[in-house]
Write a structure and sequence with these properties.
The chain has 107 residues and is mainly α. 82% of the residues lie in helices and 0% in strands.
Amino acid sequence: MNKSLSILLGMSSVVFPIIVSAQGGLHEGTSLSILSIGSSIVNVLWVVFTVLAIICFVVAGVLFLTAFGDTEKLKTARGAFIWGVVGVVVAILAFSIVSLVRNAIRA
């Protein structure tokens, strides 16, 4: 029960800022286009990814600290860190590809 409560609190800390930022609505004179919707989605996903990346590296750090020289735990912690780095690289590439496509469409 305690683990599910902590997962629920962690997920709500990610979701609540997104819900609050979505309350702004459209302003007078703004147009709704596919590019603006896509840009908004990418910006929100970038924030969510950043939070998840920070959580991933904190978990990997805790795994390193709690390994106490146990080779199997160190291997698990190293794997978590490497997969965190791979996730960051993939996300940066995805964000760059979206930006390149967006710039190519505008040109």
